[in-house]
Amino acid sequence: MAKKQDNTAERPELELVECTRQPGKLRLSQYACGRRYLRAQDSLEEIPENDFGITLRWSLQLCRNCPQGLSRSKNIKLESTPQPLRRGKRIRFGKKKKTLIPFQCTGKDGG
Description:
This protein is mostly helical. Helices cover about 30% and strands about 5% of the residues. The protein has a domain at about 10-75. α2 crosses α3 and α2 (about 30-40) crosses α4 (about 65-75).
């Protein structure tokens, strides 16, 4: 029988905390709290205008000025994501343009 491991003792960032700003006694990890804070700092106009997007935008606005989120986000390192290339400016991998080498005949028959 496998031993049950207590991951929260080994990794304190996985400890669940109760958010005081979100409705419904939301419980999330400290890492998730920091990520929500960082996500709330981005532009919220990119979120779609459907039902899910409206709910997400509203919940992230609550995280935007949260002092707990600010303190938990300081240890999170984000990788920069490259901006999408405009159409027609894609970088193609694996497909090279074939260059034609002109055929030169060196024998007596050639022309």
